């Protein structure tokens, strides 16, 4: 199935690229569009034979805040960075054969946050906003509601099944998305013990940084930012010794990195904090890797120092090289986390460049794995109130102006706009005239309809792209918590593994018929 699909995709790309050499003239000819559509049809017909292999490896890419408008705008940007008009470009995720929609609401929120959604797509149950790795019975910030309401993640299911596991993020490694992989916390903001109320510490709740090292022993790969949450309070940072805000934060005096290094002394474990150290490693000699490249979040890709800071793509490549040595396979979570931050700050250029970099990482992972034994999923936790419009012409720079001025205030406006956020500005009682400023500058804050210090999430469904074994199970519109159940089913980990009996890696799985007990359970839940 997937062989034909990707061959046809390649043919489509070649035809499209050839057409772009004289796109204006080619597109005037109906044959151009008919030929392209017919090739796409052949592509779709090839999907009739489904990939029902057992997934040895699982890769989950999460674009934080990467709603459908962000995907479309990133596609255009990717093409324009390559000298094309952009609209006809394909992102790597666009090439995946199966696409569905996920409903993102939290159990107590119509418009979700990243903690409750992470619990859904990693642990398989929907939860309250602001909580990670606990069910909806837990109440945010109430420590005494933690015990008994913990839920485990697909990372743990994979580890328990003997696979190597890893997480890579451009945010802090104890941020909302990655933390749902290993932590059980009623407050996503409990990043270190200094961020917790005294009574919560006294009642036995643990900060998220501590849980990273204690809850799931021996996570094979951990990479991202967040150094300052791992070191004793006021201990200066190795990279920014003169910047007080980057010093350690821990009140308990523990050096979590030092403890990890000591624990891994005879286990081929390595700690790194810069790109040079990371790329000097021989993955064949590394079984455990802890990489903390910034005190807080990693820098935006547009601002990244390529000499000292690894890109998301570089981190993913190293992670896969380490994880794939395990004959039982691996699970890897990859978060393009700063897409979300760019949008919150109203900085669309930062957000979209982050999305394009994640697309590069998806491409690199695809080159290093096989669709025959690796299920890869790309999705978002939620969207943002970001959009672009204004009847822009074909090939208009994605960060450019709409072709006509407003017929109300007679001023120009950028195609990219936000529904709310810090870009709301009044000058002399009216909307700012963007022609007088550099609206293509990296940190330009696009205009917003409602003034807020931080732009908000959007509540619409997000796309889920899938390829590899059992990818066809992601179809139509689903609850977000369905995703890890598909991954577990495909890989024969976690629950409902009856269909896996007698099957080796790469062999076909047979659908499992529901048991009488399962049917009774469902009836009881419904009635």
From TrEMBL:
Q: Which residues form the signal peptide?
A: 1-22
User: Which parts pass through the membrane?
Assistant: none
- EC code: 3.1.3.1
Spell out the reaction equation it catalyses.
a phosphate monoester + H2O = an alcohol + phosphate
Q: Which residues form the active site?
A: 114
Main location per UniProt?
membrane
Report whether RNA-binding shows up as a keyword of the record. Answer: no
Look up keyword Lipoprotein and say if it applies.
yes
Its membrane topology: Lipid-anchor; GPI-anchor
Its Gene Ontology molecular function terms? alkaline phosphatase activity; metal ion binding
* Residues that, per the record, bind Mg(2+): 64, 175, 177, 335, 344
Any one GO CC term of the record: plasma membrane
| Compartment(s) | Cell membrane
Record-listed Zn(2+) binding positions: 64, 340, 381-382, 457
Record Pfam families: Alk_phosphatase
Q: How is the cofactor bound?
A: Binds 2 Zn(2+) ions. Binds 1 Mg(2+) ion.
**Which cofactors does the annotated protein need, by name?**
Zn(2+); Mg(2+)
Q: What keywords tag this UniProt record?
A: Cell membrane, Glycoprotein, GPI-anchor, Hydrolase, Lipoprotein, Magnesium, Membrane, Metal-binding, Signal, Zinc
Q: Which InterPro entries match?
A: Alkaline_phosphatase (IPR001952), Alkaline_phosphatase_AS (IPR018299), Alkaline_phosphatase_core_sf (IPR017850)
Record note on quaternary structure:
Homodimer.
Which family does the UniProt entry place this protein in?
Belongs to the alkaline phosphatase family.
Question: What is the recorded name of this protein?
Answer: Alkaline phosphatase
Organism equals Takifugu rubripes (Japanese pufferfish)
Supply the gene name.
Answer: alpl
